[in-house]
Amino acid sequence: MDGFKIPNVIFRTRVKDEEGNFGWKNMTTDNYFKGKSVILFSLPGAFTPTCSTYQLPNFEKMYADFSLQGIDEVYCMSVNDSFVMNAWAKDQKLENVKVIPDGSGEFTRQMGMLVKKDNLGFGYRSWRYAALIEDCMVKKTWVEEGKMDNCPDDPYSVTDPAYIHKDLLDGIEWFIKTVRW
Length: 181
Description:
The chain is α/β, with parallel strands linked by helices.
């Protein structure tokens, strides 16, 4: 899955203007990813147990660690609308991680990560995955095992921020040991 350009889509977001009023703003893939080194993690849903208890809070806690590795932004995406994602960001008291609403699931579908979660009453959602994206190009992915429609489990291991951080560090160490200057 690594080594490809991310889908070019428009995300419908709700943002606050200078007067404190909310309005619609179209954000593009380029707005979020062009010219940046980004960790994107995508999960089944805002306000869900694993996502709210572990994954999002731990990415928020480890934001500085990722910044030290040259990561410009950490984004959390879900197939939820902007109202839900903004409420979740507020509930989680996010200061560093930014949320991206993929309300229609178009980005997720084009990434090959859209799955049915009808067994939980969710409809279409994202499979849990993460990606290192540099200037709109996927450099590395972490995808939870068992991807399928109506999966009875919610695997969470390789998209844990501590795992991703260590994996990136191991890659840097391998590069330093392998490349002769």
